[in-house]
Each structure stands twice: as C-alpha cells, then as structure tokens.
C-alpha cells in the first residue's frame, strides 16, 4: 500500500477528517441537528419544553419532603435537598451526555451510511441537546438555592463551570468510545445503562465524602477521588450548597464534609478527563472507517 | 485538463458476518470450528479510473457489480481496503433520495438541514432558497408544513431540487433520475444538462440506459467488481445491451 499523500497535489482523500477539531467548521449544521433533535423529542406535546421544568421541580419538592423531612437526612446535612440536587444535576447530565452520545451514531445510521460528514458531529450534537435539558434543572436548582440563602462568590461560580466542563469532557470521551463500539455490537448500549445506574450511587450524591472515607481503606481512597464525576459533583456542591446560609453557619471556615484539598483532586480529575477524551477520539477514529458498512 | 477524481487500484471487500452473539461463537468453537466464521465478498477488485474536471460519466453494470460501492468510496462514506481515492474539492449529491431529510421538520427547515449536510453554507442556502422552492414546484402553503404530510413525489422533488442547487465540485447521482412524474423528470434532465454546460463534473449511477445516454458522454461498465469497459457512452450502453 502506498503512502496516503501519493495522490497528486490538490486532490483530497474523501472520508478523512480531523475529528473533533473539524466540528467548529460545521457549526451551522450542528445547530440544525440540535434543533431537529429537540423538535423530535417534543413532538405532539402541548407543554413542550415546559415539561423539562415541571419534572425536576416536582422531583425536588418530593425529595425535600421524603428524604429531608421524613427520613431526617436534613439533620446530618444542612440544606440536604440542595446538597442532593446539586449532585443529581451533574449525574443526570453525565447520564444524558454519555447515554445519548453512545446511541448517536446508530440513531443517525441513515446519514452515516449515505453521506460523508465528520461523524463526530453526531456525538457533539448530543452534548448540546443534553446541555439544553440541563438548563431547566439548573434553573430549578438556582431558585431552590436562592430560597435557602444562596450567596455565591466568584469561586463558587467558577466551581459550577468547572463541574460542567469536567462532566462534558469525561462523558464525551466515554461516549465517543462506546458510540463507536455500539456500531459493532449493540451490547454497548446495555452496558452503558449499567454503568449509568452505578454512576448515580458511586458519587457522593446521596451521602457525603466523609461517609465514604470512614469505610474505604486509605489505600483506595485515591481511586474514588480521581473519578471525574465524583469531582464534578463535589465542585457543584462548592458552587451551590456551600454558599447557602445554613451551611455557612455550620461550617464557617471550611468546606465541611466535602473532599479535602479539592482543587488538587479536581485538577487531577480534569487531566484524566482530557486524556479520556483523547483516547475516546482515537478509538472512534480507528473504528470510524467501518461505520458505514457495519450499520 | 485537471483531474477531478482519481481511483487508483482500489479493492473493497465486505465481511458478511455469520456470528453475532457470544453463544454462537462458543458453540462454533466447541463443535470443532466447522465452516467459516466469516464470509467475505469482493465488491471492487483492483479498480482504477480517472475523471477529468467537467466530464460527465455514467457508471453502469448489473445489480451487485459494485457501482454503488464505488460511488460511496468517491463520496468518502466508505474507505478502500487497498488502493487510493482522491477527489478535487467538495463531493456531494444524491446518494439516496431523502437521506438527510427529517419527517418532523417543515419543507423549509429540511432545505436548510439537507443543504448544509451537502456542504452548503447558511448564506448559500438563503441565497438560493427561492430558486430551490421554485424548482421543486412545491406550493407556498406546503413549504412550511412538515415533510411527513408530503406526497412521495413532492418529497423526491424537494430532495432533488436541494441537491441540484448545492453546487459541489463533483456531483454524484445514484439511481434517482426516475424521480417524480414525466414533466418533472424532464426538468431534472434539463437541469443536469445545464450543470454539464456550467462545467460541473458528474458521476451518474443508473440502470436506465436511455436516460444515461442523454446525460453522460462517457460510460464505465462494471462487472463483478472490475471495470470491463471504459469509453464513449454509446459503447458502454451497447455493451450492456449486448450482454442482455
């Protein structure tokens, strides 16, 4: 086989792209794909996007009553419902990005088989759709936080942004990898569902890091701390839960039951997520040439 | 002359997979590995050709001769197992009518979606929007209703119209010339003739021999994944007719 550049100058090799780096050039198509996706999701629905506000709102009230009051979790963790919801928002976002990106190539099989486009467009479109669904949850969370006396500083806002970026990087890296596997074996979808079910429980969403620290052997606690979603959840706690009044009263000079040395661990998790994304993209590119014939 | 498409000693093999599940794989191992686990099929076997800029070429052959595979290799949807494909500029066209259309979007929205899938910019599409709608002969009140309410003829006309106005450097057409009713078909042919005059490079795959002799000047006949004829379209058509 000859070297790829032996084709005469001026000719390009069809079907080759720079992967994610090409996506910005296609942003108009990307915006149309996102719009299409949203349209399809809300077709035939009278309330449309409003449902995205109603569901998390009701969910939050139910948690407040059932877990905060009845189960009495509020006694251990002040403003428990804010603690819970700020973590849950991240886990939901992770689930939606990871789940949708995994399915994105198979769902768009018609296009992938017939017309050449940088295939990364489909997973990236899924990320935007997931982000649009995150907004209503964030709005509900912000309202609840404000009621609880939320007074964020710059650090807290930065923590929220960090949490979201960390989640997207990690989920997209995983999604590219599993999205490509899913073309070859549809088992990947089921496997991802299993992972997502676990994801909700292995991050400190329903409990605090101190609960984990007391059980997990010291030799293993770095594994838990390096898991990017743990760090994203903790960053979101810093963003939404820490600067509420009841928490400030209880832990005036510390981050309370959150992971200690958070900036360092979050930084490490960030590096891991970026590496994941590079690995995910590499796997995706390797398998990409087989997409059209395997679908 | 500059070359628009270069296909150099291309081999494309498909794997027809027999086993899909782990259970089948284990059973196959335990039963002494009887039979082949995979079956392969050679769709293109050492095909070479070049197309000059401004040429219009008809790709002919019986079903399963590798025409569509070759077209997909040129568009980049598939990649060759061996050999090389090179193209100059943007390749687009109608590989299959309606790919890139969504039934829940309106006609107008679909023009934008499909146009940008074919590589047009937002500005291109907006500039040619009226032309595209006029060519498709879809009435004003339908263009803003969802495509799922369209008749199949309307749908095909809109799809052809978008592609015919997308101005790629290499225009590929796969089996779509039988679009719509007779008058519209005639209009499609006129549009293709127009594109030819403008110096558009065309590659057309079709079974309709009468039609292809009107729109192409050169014909390439594939059989069993090999090129068996490459020359004037009359010769290619004659060869296929001769074979029956």
Structural features, described:
The complex is a heterodimer of chains A (295) and B (244). By secondary structure, chain A is an all-alpha fold. Chain A is 71% helix and 0% strand. In chain A, helix 7 (154-184) runs antiparallel to helix 8 (187-202). In chain B, the strands form two sheets. Chain B has a six-stranded mixed β-sheet with strand order 5-6-7-3-8-9, with helices on both faces. Chain B has a three-stranded antiparallel β-sheet with strand order 2-1-4. Chain B is of the alpha/beta class and 244 residues long. Chain B has a single domain (3-243), classed as Rossmann fold, CATH 3.40.50.300. At the A-B interface, helix 1 and helix 5 of A face strand 1, helix 2, strand 4 and helix 3 of B.
Question: Top keywords for this entry?
Answer:
heterodimer; A: 295 residues; mainly alpha; 71% helix; disordered N terminus; B: 244 residues; alpha/beta; Rossmann fold; six-stranded mixed β-sheet
**Distance between the first and last residues' Cα of chain B:** 36 Å
Q: Helical percent range of chain B?
A: 25-40%
Number of helical stretches of at least 4 residues of chain B? 9
Principal-axis shape of chain A: globular
What's the SSE blueprint?
The complex is a heterodimer of chains A (295) and B (244).
Chain A: H1 27-41, H2 51-70, H3 73-76, H4 80-107, H5 109-114, H6 121-147, H7 154-184, H8 187-202, H9 209-213, H10 221-226, H11 228-241, H12 245-250, H13 262-288, H14 291-294
Helix pairs in contact in A: 1-6, 2-6, 4-6, 4-7, 4-8, 4-11, 7-8, 7-11, 7-13, 11-13
Chain B: E1 3-17, H1 22-30, E2 38-52, E3 56-61, H2 67-75, E4 82-87, E5 91-94, H3 107-117, H4 122-136, H5 140-143, H6 152-164, E6 170-174, H7 182-197, E7 201-205, H8 209-215, E8 218-223, E9 226-232, H9 233-243
Parallel strand pairs in B: 3-7, 3-8, 5-6, 6-7
Antiparallel strand pairs in B: 1-2, 1-4, 8-9
């Amino acid at each position: 086989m000859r070297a790829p550049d032996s084709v005469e100058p001026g000719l390009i090799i069809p079907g080759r792209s720079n992967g994610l780096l090409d996506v910005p050039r296609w942003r108009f198509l990307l915006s149309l794909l996102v719009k299409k996706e949203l349209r399809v999701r809300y077709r035939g629905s009278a309330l449309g996007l409003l449902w995205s506000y109603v569901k998390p709102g009701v969910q939050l009230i139910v948690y407040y009553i059932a877990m905060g009051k009845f189960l009495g979790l509020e006694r251990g963790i002040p403003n428990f419902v804010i603690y819970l919801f700020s973590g849950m928002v991240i886990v939901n976002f992770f689930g939606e990005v990871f789940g949708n990106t995994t399915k994105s190539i198979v769902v768009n099989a018609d296009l992938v088989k017939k017309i050449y486009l940088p295939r990364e467009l489909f997973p990236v479109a899924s990320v935007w759709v997931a982000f649009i669904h995150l907004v209503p949850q964030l709005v509900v969370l912000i309202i609840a936080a404000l009621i609880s006396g939320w007074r964020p500083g710059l650090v807290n806002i930065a923590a929220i942004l960090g949490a979201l970026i960390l989640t997207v990087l990690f989920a997209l890296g995983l999604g590219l990898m599993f999205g490509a596997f899913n073309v070859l074996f549809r088992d990947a979808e089921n496997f991802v569902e299993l992972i997502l079910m676990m994801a909700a429980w292995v991050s400190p969403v329903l409990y605090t890091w101190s609960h984990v620290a007391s059980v997990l052997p010291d030799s293993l606690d770095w594994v838990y701390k390096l898991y990017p979603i743990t760090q994203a959840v903790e960053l979101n706690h810093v963003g939404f839960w820490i600067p509420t009044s009841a928490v400030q009263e209880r832990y005036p000079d510390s981050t309370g039951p959150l992971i200690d040395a958070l900036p360092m661990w979050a930084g490490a998790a960030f590096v891991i997520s970026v590496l994941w994304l590079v690995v995910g993209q590499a796997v995706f590119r390797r398998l990409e040439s087989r997409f059209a014939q395997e679908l | 002359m500059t070359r628009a498409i270069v296909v150099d000693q291309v081999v494309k093999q498909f794997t027809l997979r027999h086993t899909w599940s782990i259970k089948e794989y284990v059973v196959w191992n335990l039963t002494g590995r009887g039979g082949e686990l995979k079956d392969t099929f050679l769709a293109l076997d050492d095909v070479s050709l070049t197309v000059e800029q401004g040429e219009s070429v008809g790709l002919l052959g019986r079903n399963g001769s590798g025409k569509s595979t070759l077209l997909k290799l040129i568009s980049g949807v598939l990649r060759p197992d061996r050999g090389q494909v090179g193209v100059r500029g943007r390749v687009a066209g109608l590989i299959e009518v309606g790919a890139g259309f969504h039934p829940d979007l309106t006609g107008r929205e679909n023009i934008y979606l499909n146009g940008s899938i074919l590589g047009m910019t937002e500005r291109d599409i907006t500039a040619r929007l009226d032309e595209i709608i006029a060519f498709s002969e879809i009435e004003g009140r339908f263009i803003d209703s969802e495509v799922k309410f369209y008749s199949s003829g309307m749908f095909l006309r809109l799809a052809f119209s978008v592609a015919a106005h997308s101005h790629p450097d290499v225009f590929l057409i796969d089996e779509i010339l039988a679009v719509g009713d007779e008058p519209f078909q005639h209009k499609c042919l006129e549009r293709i003739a127009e594109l030819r005059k403008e110096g558009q490079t065309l590659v057309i795959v079709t079974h309709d021999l009468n039609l292809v002799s009107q729109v192409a000047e050169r014909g390439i006949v594939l059989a069993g994944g090999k090129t068996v004829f490459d020359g004037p379209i009359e010769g290619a058509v004659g060869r296929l007719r001769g074979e029956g």
